[in-house]
C-alpha cells in the first residue's frame, strides 16, 4: 500500500473513533528539547514524575527500532461543568482540575491508540508501533508541537485553535514513513496573563515551569505541604487550572464533545468533610476511575484538610480533633493540627497542648506548634 493513501485512511479512521486531532512528525531526535531538559535538571525544575533519562525522552529510535514517524493525537475535554454544586458553610467543597473530570484520560487515549495500532497492523503486517500517553518517555507536548497539533504556549500547554489548551495528548512511534505536518506558529503574542496570575510564580518565563512550585504538582505530593503554598492552593484538592482559565485563547472553548469526560459534579467538586473519614475502599470506589486518584487517598485527604482550614470550617473540628488524636500517619495528623490552629475555637488550644505533650514525631510537633502560634495571633 502507498503510504500517502494509508496516511489519509488513518486520518479518516481517527475521526470515526473520536480522535479530535491527529498530526504526524518524523522520528528525528528532539535536539532543542534535549538542551531545555538538561537546563531544567540543572535548575532542579523537574517534578520527578517524568522519565529521568533525557536520551530516552528525546531519541525516539531508542524506544522503537527503525522508528521513522510519530503519530500525535489530541482529544478535547470540557472546560466547564453543567450544574456545578456550590459550597456553603457546613458543606464546603473542593475541586479537581478539569483534566481529572470524567474517565481517566490515560485509559481513554490508550484505547484510541490501540485502535490505531490495530488499524495499521491490519493494513501493513510488518508495521511496528509503540504508543504512550503522559507516562511514557517522550514529551507529549514536544511531539504535539512538532506534529502541528498546536503551538507550545507560555503556560507550558499545547494550545489548539479549535479546543484551546483543553486537550489530552498521546503519540505512537512507528516504522512507517508518514509525511510530516508543519508545526504551528506561536500565537501567544505579547500576552503574559498566565505568567502574571500563576498563584505560586511557578511559570518562570514563557514556556518554562518550575514544577516544584506548581500547584498542580504540589497537590500530588505525599509529604507535608510547605507553608508558603498552603494558602495558595485554596480549595484545590488535585491539580490547578489557573493558567488555562485566564488564557484568552481558551475563551468560549466549552468542548462538551465526549461522554467519557463529562464530569459528575459531586465527584469533580466533592464535599470536603467526607474526605476526613473516607476509607481506602470507599475512595477507590468513588474516585478510582478518575486520573486524580492515581496517587491514592493520602494527598487528597491532606489537601482537603488544608482547604477546610482555608474556609475556617468550624463544622470540621470534631473530625480534625479525632484525626489529631488517632491517625497513625504523621502527615495527616500534623496537617490536622495545623488546621485546628488555623480554624481556632474554644477547645483548640487545650487539644493542641494535650497533643503536644504526647506527640513523638518531630515534624508533627512542629505542626502543632504552628497551630498554637495561630491561636496566639488571634
| Strand-pairing-aware structural class | alpha+beta
Spatial order of the strands forming the largest sheet: 1-2-7-4
Unreliable residue runs: none
What would you report as the Rg, rounded to the nearest angstrom? 23 Å
Question: What is the highest CATH level, the class of the largest domain?
Answer: Mainly Alpha
Order of helices and strands: HEHHEEHEHEEEHEEHHEHHHHHHHH
Highlighted features:
16 helices; alpha+beta; 40% helix; 378 residues; elongated; 2 domains; 4-stranded antiparallel β-sheet; Leucine-rich Repeat Variant; two-stranded parallel ribbon
Structure, briefly:
With 378 residues, this protein is α+β, with helices and mostly antiparallel strands.
Fold and architecture overview:
With 378 residues, this protein is α+β, with helices and mostly antiparallel strands. It folds into two domains: 3-83 and 101-174, no CATH class; 193-253 and 266-377, Leucine-rich Repeat Variant (Alpha Horseshoe). It has 16 helices and ten strands.
Write the layout of secondary structure elements.
Elements: H1 3-16, E1 21-26, H2 31-43, H3 54-58, E2 69-76, E3 95-96, H4 105-123, E4 129-132, H5 140-146, E5 151-152, E6 158-159, E7 167-174, H6 193-197, E8 203-205, E9 208-209, H7 215-218, H8 227-230, E10 236-238, H9 242-245, H10 265-268, H11 280-287, H12 297-311, H13 317-326, H14 330-343, H15 348-358, H16 362-377
Parallel strand pairs: 3-10
Antiparallel strand pairs: 1-2, 2-7, 4-7, 5-6, 8-9
